[in-house]
């Protein structure tokens, strides 16, 4: 009994082995059992049935040797189709001929019937629900063993052993294992379908967020332009007042153009000339630009440490845009005022620009979602600024690291390759 259980467990492992390998190697989002990976799965199932044949086990009586080769053959034929079934038949037949011994011819005949007959059930099998699939594959398994029993007696004169004591137990044994195998495959496929549906939903959600953000942001300047044009059409204004209206309209058009440019930067970033820049000087320049805005929000801005030797290769203006977005977010995160500190540090291989504020901070979930379309921690924010910032830094082979705690502030770190290292290469 112990030897039988050991052999059965080995055979079960040989059957489960292809499914484990498939889960490990199949590409996420491109999984489709025995379709996207037909070659790989055919090889794995071939290995499975050969191992089952090489390591059979005694079943109930010492004189009856049994293995589970029919499981990968039937499963492969149902999920893989005629071509896979034919390949598995060739592998099983060659292996059985090499092994030799009693019952070879009935085994070859049985394998041929499985290879030819089972693929005809595939269209039906793929249409029915999971419970009916289990019933069908269980029935095919029992039928294959019944064929062995009666074909052996009819064609080769093999004596029919104890039907109750041996054959019914064989049918239950193999039928249960093949049903469990099918359940595992169906569960894997259900998970794959759910994952693919999630990816499609996520893409559609991103598109809808973009559409919402564009309409929301463009509506304000367009409505202003429309309003001034209607006023100028319906009423007579002085030349000075018309010039004032024209200037307002032009400002709104400029705002709309900047918004569209920001979206284009995210969707398909385009950069001017990449040039080596001294990071400390660029940070000081951006600091001067943002000081009036910070003063208006009662925020104190200063530098803690500026490494004058730190140098990176980047588009100067896009870098300034990204840094301005981060600083503005830090200032707006301190509605009651606070401090914002900039530092620049470097090593032989890396350059770090840190922006630290004493603002409201963010939760781990908010940090994780930074840079997503239409996500913002601000009530009236669209998330466009940080989305563009992440796109700029990423496309310039940089990285953004965020460390934040609710109520204690946030630290943004921009990490780039040190230009000295790039030059040495």
UniProtKB/TrEMBL annotation:
Residues 213-420 form the Histidine kinase domain. Its EC number is 2.7.13.3. It is found in: Cell membrane. InterPro entries: HATPase_C_sf (IPR036890), HATPase_dom (IPR003594), His_kinase_dom (IPR005467), HisK_dim/P_dom (IPR003661), HisK_dim/P_sf (IPR036097), Sensor_HK_Regulatory (IPR050736), Sig_transdc_His_kin-like_C (IPR004358), Sig_transdc_His_kinase_LytS_TM (IPR011620). SUPFAM superfamilies: ATPase domain of HSP90 chaperone/DNA topoisomerase II/histidine kinase, Homodimeric domain of signal transducing histidine kinase. CDD domains: HisKA. The keyword Nucleus does not apply. It catalyses: ATP + protein L-histidine = ADP + protein N-phospho-L-histidine. Keywords: ATP-binding, Cell membrane, Kinase, Membrane, Nucleotide-binding, Phosphoprotein, Transferase, Transmembrane, Transmembrane helix, Two-component regulatory system. The chain crosses the membrane at residues 12-33, 39-59, 71-98, 104-122, 134-157, 163-185. It is a multi-pass membrane protein. This is histidine kinase. It comes from Planococcus kocurii.
């Amino acid at each position: 009994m112990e030897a039988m259980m050991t052999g059965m467990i080995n055979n079960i492992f040989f059957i489960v082995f292809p499914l484990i390998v498939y889960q490990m190697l199949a590409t996420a989002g491109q999984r489709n059992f025995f379709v996207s990976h037909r070659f790989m799965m055919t090889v794995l199932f071939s290995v499975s049935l050969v191992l089952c044949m090489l390591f059979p086990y005694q079943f109930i009586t010492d004189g009856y040797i049994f293995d589970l080769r029919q499981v990968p053959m039937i499963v492969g034929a149902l999920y893989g189709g005629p071509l896979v079934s034919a390949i598995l038949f060739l592998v099983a037949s060659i292996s059985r001929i090499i092994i030799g011994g009693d019952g070879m011819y009935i085994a070859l005949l049985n394998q041929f019937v499985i290879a030819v007959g089972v693929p005809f059930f595939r269209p039906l099998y793929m249409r029915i629900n999971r419970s009916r699939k289990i019933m069908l594959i269980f029935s095919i398994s029992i039928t294959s063993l019944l064929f062995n029993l009666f074909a052996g007696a009819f064609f080769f004169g093999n004596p029919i052993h104890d039907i109750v004591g041996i054959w019914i137990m064989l049918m239950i044994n193999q039928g249960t294992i093949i049903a469990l195998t099918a359940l595992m495959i169906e569960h894997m496929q259900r998970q794959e379908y759910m994952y693919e549906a999630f990816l499609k939903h996520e893409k559609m959600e991103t598109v809808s967020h973009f559409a919402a953000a564009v309409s929301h942001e463009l509506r304000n300047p367009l409505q202003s332009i429309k309003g001034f044009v209607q006023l100028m059409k319906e009423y007579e204004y002085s030349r000075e007042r018309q010039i004032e209206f024209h200037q307002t309209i032009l400002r709104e058009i400029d705002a709309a153009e900047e918004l569209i440019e920001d979206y284009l930067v995210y969707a398909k970033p385009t950069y001017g000339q990449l040039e080596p820049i001294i990071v400390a000087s660029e940070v000081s320049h951006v600091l001067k630009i943002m000081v009036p805005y910070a003063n208006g929000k009662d925020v104190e801005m200063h530098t803690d440490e500026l490494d004058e030797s730190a140098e990176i290769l980047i588009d100067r203006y896009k870098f300034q845009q990204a840094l301005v977005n981060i600083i503005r977010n830090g200032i707006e995160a301190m509605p009651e005022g606070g401090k914002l500190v900039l530092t620049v540090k470097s090593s032989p291989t890396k350059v770090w620009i840190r922006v630290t504020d004493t603002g409201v901070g963010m939760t781990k979930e908010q940090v994780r979602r930074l840079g997503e379309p239409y996500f913002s921690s601000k009530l009236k924010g669209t998330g466009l600024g940080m989305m563009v910032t992440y796109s700029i830094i990423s496309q310039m082979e940089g990285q953004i690291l965020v460390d934040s705690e609710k109520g204690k502030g946030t630290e943004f770190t921009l990490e780039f390759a040190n230009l000295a290292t790039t030059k040495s290469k």
